[in-house]
Amino acid sequence: MSNADIWEKIIEGYKEVKSDNYLGIFGYPIKHTLSPIIHDMISDEFSLGERYIPFEIDENLGEYVKSAYENGIKGLNITVPFKERVIPYLCEVDDDAKKIGAVNTLVRTDKGYKGYNTDMEGLYRSIKETGTEIKDKEVIMLGAGGAARAVAFMCKKYGAKKIYIINRSIDKAAALSDDMNDKETLKKFIPVSVDEYNTVSNGKYIIIQCTSVGLKSEDGLPLIHDINFYRQAEFAVDLIYNPAKTCFIKCMEELGIPVINGLKMLLYQGIIANELWNNIEVDATLTEKIYSNLIKKLYR
């Protein structure tokens, strides 16, 4: 199949979106993504004439990346299940993305696409704007899957004092801890199995929920069902944003603990990506306008 044929296949269904400048996202499934709201509003505000398209693609990722580049696509987001798989098809990878081992943003260069990870910075911005600092804090991460890698690297980059990674599989928690620990961090990352969660010393923690538990309304608390364990939180984050209030978030609210969901992380990772694509700076006014539209679309 030629690149022209590949492009016709992935653009199919979106030809009514008129623009000479396309941005987009590769993923599966992807049709319900909120990202077009973010990027189309930025385009309109800056008169960029860009339109953002969700491309639901199959396993031929390398062909699609090559085809998008040859057809002039300025920038792409990459989401599940392709954040790790896309790396071999890039001409360069940003240092942070390389250390995380996952890419969610492709920026066009003269040689091909360069990969970045804006998830980590998006999460950091969403936490920092609440007045909460990561530096010198102790953190509990729930989960050690793909989403947890960006969280762990954020904790490392911004100077968390100690990070417990609690997971059902101690091997996965240990592997992630080993990846993050080095001469600089020493043994800051500590793997803990769910069965031994009570070995985490009593204290005050930032707790970050990185699992998929909570996506379904019937889901209960993630990993640890002991309500007293969560009393140790001084601040909490659930990476899930739909539904707006998972059992984890409701638990934190009942305990009177400040908590946010992942919607601001989604917003900021998109803004950072667009700033890379267009060499612009999105101000607080536009940021809040986009956020309001995301809330209306998602929670109406």
The stretches of 5 or more residues where confidence is low (pLDDT under 50) are none
The assigned structural class equals alpha/beta
The helix/strand order is: HEHEHEEHEEHEHEHEEHEHEHH
Distance, first to last CA: 43 Å
Named at the architecture level, the CATH assignment of the largest domain is 3-Layer(aba) Sandwich
Outline the structure in words.
The chain is an alpha/beta fold and 300 residues long. The chain folds into two domains: 3-117, Leucine Dehydrogenase, chain A, domain 1 (Rossmann fold), CATH 3.40.50.10860; 121-261, NAD(P)-binding Rossmann-like Domain (Rossmann fold), CATH 3.40.50. It has eleven helices and twelve strands. It has a six-stranded mixed beta sheet with strand order 2-1-3-5-6-4. It has a six-stranded parallel beta sheet with strand order 9-8-7-10-11-12, with helices on both faces.
Concise account of the structure shown:
Helix 2 packs across helix 10 (263-278) and helix 2 packs antiparallel against helix 11 (284-299). The model has no long low-confidence stretch (mean pLDDT 92). The protein has helices at residues 3-11, 35-46, 61-70, 95-100, 119-128, 146-157, 170-180, 227-230, 247-254, 263-278, 284-299; strands spanning 21-27, 50-56, 75-78, 92-93, 105-108, 113-116, 138-142, 162-167, 189-193, 205-209, 233-238, 259-260.
